[in-house]
Amino acid sequence: MDLKAYLASKRQQVEQSLHTLLPQADGELQLHLDSLAYSLKAGGKRLRPILCLAAAEALGTSFPQRLMPVACALECVHTYSLIHDDLPAMDNDELRRGKPTNHMVYGEAGAILAGDGLLTFAFELLSQPDTGDLLPDRARLEIIHCLAQAIGSLGMVGGQALDMAAEEKSISFAELQTIHRRKTGALITASVQIGAIIGQANQSQMAALTAYGNAIGLAFQIVDDLLDVEGTSAQLGKTSGADAKHQKATYPAFFGVEQTRAKAQEAVQEAIDALTVLGPSADRLRELAHYISSRSH
Q1: Which DSSP string corresponds to 71-133?
Q2: What is the C-alpha separation between 73 and 49, in angstroms, rounded?
Q3: Inter-residue contact 184 to 217 (CB < 8 Å)
Q4: By the number of CB atoms within 10 A of the CB, which of 21, 84, 131, 268 ranks highest?
């Protein structure tokens, strides 16, 4: 199966599972649940759950359908972060995945609560007790701890705090790298690590996959910086030029477009080099690294 078909197949698998797993209710909670579903079903690459699946597969583990809630939890966390990033108090964006942002449809309070709901729902999915035969308690706790660390104050949330504090200020390149690794990279790395836990990675395999995740997380954000300069809102599904509008430090601001493109390729090569210990079984992860650097949105 080529990469395009693989991505389409896995994306469909994730989206079908999300549709099945989303909480359902009638009556007074309907508007709130509609706001969750609005952002979660708005599309997207589903890259984080796919990386989780691919990491497990690289270790020879066929990802069971009954463990799809674990992969779906990653998409719930990612979507929550987008909803909150778009809020007026944050980046104040009106377009996401080609549609009006959540707060434009459901109001600011509704969007905050939708993000809160998705974040909490992610941990509900991770802690489901009926998959104990597939996921031992120790592994489940390790996954929950891994994700909580990646998205908390020392990870994604901390990265967003640093990003907000850096607006309209001059920061060093080292500070920019810290923001990128925490705000974007931490969840991507955790997605790979969680797949590795499910695949029962040994110490050297986990180290390799962690290094891979760190490198592609950085590559992803470098390409995002580049697309914000070169892409259109129609291509990106979100407002282009937002970084310049908010006077944010970015790779193109430090290095220019061509050198930024080279920096992305360097990060991709670093990711690929990290997988040497896994041999041909990690070829899909190698393909995903190239996909991340060549994407147009």
Answers
A1: HHHHHHHHHHHHHHHTSTTTT--SEETTEE-HHHHHHHHHHHHHHHHHHHHHHHHHT-GGGTT
A2: 8
A3: yes
A4: 268
pLDDT in tens, 277-288: 999 999 999 999
Number of structural domains in the chain? 1
Distances in whole angstroms, Cα of residue 24 to Cα of each of 72, 81, 157, 172, 250:
16, 22, 28, 47, 41
Residues spanned by the domain of 257: 3-294
DSSP E strand stretches across 139-226: none
Which one, of 229, 297, 234, 292, lies nearest residue 50 by Cα? Answer: 292
In the chain, pLDDT over 90 holds for what percent of residues? 75
Question: What are the backbone dihedrals phi and psi of residue 202, each rounded to the nearest 5 degrees, phi first?
Answer: -85, 180
CATH number at residue 279: 1.10.600.10
Q: What is the largest CA-CA distance in the chain?
A: 54
